[in-house]
Design brief:
With about 400 residues, the protein is of the alpha/beta class. The protein is about 20% helix and about 35% strand. The protein has an eight-stranded mixed sheet with strand order 6-21-22-20-19-16-17-18, sandwiched between helices. A seven-stranded mixed sheet has the order 9-8-7-10-11-12-13, covered by helices on one side. A hairpin with a 6-residue loop joins strand 8 and strand 9. The longest helix is centred in the N-terminal third of the chain and has 20 residues, at about 80-100. It is globular, with a radius of gyration of 22 Å. It binds S-adenosylmethionine. S-adenosylmethionine binds near residues 267, 288 and 331. Belongs to the class I-like SAM-binding methyltransferase superfamily. RNA M5U methyltransferase family. It holds the Pfam family tRNA_U5-meth_tr. This is Class I SAM-dependent RNA methyltransferase. InterPro entries: MeTrfase_TrmA_AS (IPR030390), MeTrfase_TrmA_CS (IPR030391), NA-bd_OB-fold (IPR012340), SAM-dependent_MTases_sf (IPR029063), U5_MeTrfase_fam (IPR010280).
Length: about 400
Amino acid sequence: MKIEKIVAGGYGLARENGKIYLVRGAYTGEDVEVSIEKDGKDVALCRVEKIKHASQKRQKPICEHFGMCGGCDWMDLDYETQLEYKKEIFVDQIKHVAKVDVTKPAIIKTSPYGYRNKAEFVIKDGKLGYNSKNSHNFVEIKRCHIISDKLNEMKGKVEKVDLKDFHHIVLREDGNKEMVIFVSQKKCETPEIDADEIISLVNRKHVVVSGEESVKKGKGFLIVKMDDIKYRLSAKAFFQISYEGAKILSQKVKEYAGSGKRLLDLYCGTGFFTLELSKNFEKLTGIEESSASISNANENAKSNGISNVEFFSSKVENFKFGTYDVIVADPPRAGIGKEIIQSIVQANPERFVYVSCDVTTFARDTHELEQKRYKIKDVTLVDLFPQTHHFEIVSLFERE
Ligand SMILES: C[S@@+](CC[C@H](N)C(=O)[O-])C[C@H]1O[C@@H](n2cnc3c(N)ncnc32)[C@H](O)[C@@H]1O
C-alpha cells in the first residue's frame, strides 16, 4: 500500500479500489503492509505491519518507550519534517473541510524535547506510567523525553514512596517550584515527599485533575512569570503545557487582536490572554467554566494591579454576549460549534482571534465563520507539541 500524504490525526493516507486507508505509523512516500483495526465502507483505520519502502525522513526515536506509550507518535520522524507535515495537514483540512484556499502558513518551532511543564501519570503496582495509544494498557515509563528535567527528577522522588492508595500522580512545575498532586479514590494519608507543593485530590478517575482538593504542604499554587505578569496556578487550573510555547501564543494573539475599547476572551482559563491583552483594551471580559481557574484569574488580576478586567465563571454556552471590538476564543479540542459562532457573529466584533489545538474542529468552524461574513485573514501555526502530530493554530478572522 502506497502512502500518498499525511492527514489530520497524523495518519498516512493510502487509496485502493476507491477506498481510503488511514494508516497509523506510516509516512508520505512509504510502501507498507497493514492490518485493519477498524473497517468501514469507505474508510478503514489501519496500522503498519511491515515497511517495504521506508521514508528517508525517518529517524531513530530517542525514547525506549516509543511505539508502546501513547504519547509521542511522531518521534521516529525528523523534526523539520514533522513541521512540514503539520503545515500540509492544516492546508489539506482547510481546503477540504473549510472549503477555503489558503497558502501554507508559517509554523513557529519550540524546543523539540523537555518542553512539558505538567505530567499526568497512571499508577500500577507502585510504578508510574502512561496508557498506550487508544487503550488502557499500562506502559511503565522510566524517563519521559518531552517533560522537563525537573518533572523527571520529581517522578524519581515520587516512585520512592508507597503509592498503593493512589490511581494517578500529576506533576507540575513553574521553572522554580514543584507541585506533586496525589490522586486517590477515597481520603487517605498523603506521603511526605521533598517537594514545594503537595496537594491531594479525591475523585473517581473520570477527570484526573478534579474532585475534593486539600493542600498538604505549601501555598496551594505555583507562580508562572511571563514578561511582566505573574500567574498563579493552582492544582486544578489550566495553563498552556509549554511555557516557551505560551509566550509565542500570547505574542501572536496580541498581534492579531490589536487594540480597541472592548475585548471578550472565551475559554479564558486562568486569564492568560485577557491579562496579556489588558494594556491594549479599555475593558476586557474573560469567560471560563472552571471556578478554580476563575479564582486564579481574579487573583492574577489583583496581584498584578490590573483593574480593567472582569472574569465570569460560566459555560460559554450560557453567557449573554454584549458587543465587542475583538473576541478571542481558545476552546478545548471540541472547538466552538455553530451555536457559539452564532453568538459571536451577533456580537459583531471587527476581529475574531481563534486559537485552536484541533485542526479538524478548527476547519469545521472556519467553514461556518466564512459563511457568516468572517473571513480568515492570517494564520500562524505554533508547534506546541513536538514529537506528536498535534499543533496549535492561531488565526485572525475579520468581519467583511
Ligand atoms: C485550551 S484551554 C484555554 C485556556 C486559556 N486561553 C489559556 O491560554 O490559559 C480551554 C479552557 O476552556 C475551558 N472550557 C472548556 N469547556 C468550556 C465551556 N463550555 N465553557 C467555558 N469554558 C470551557 C477549560 O476549562 C479550559 O480552561
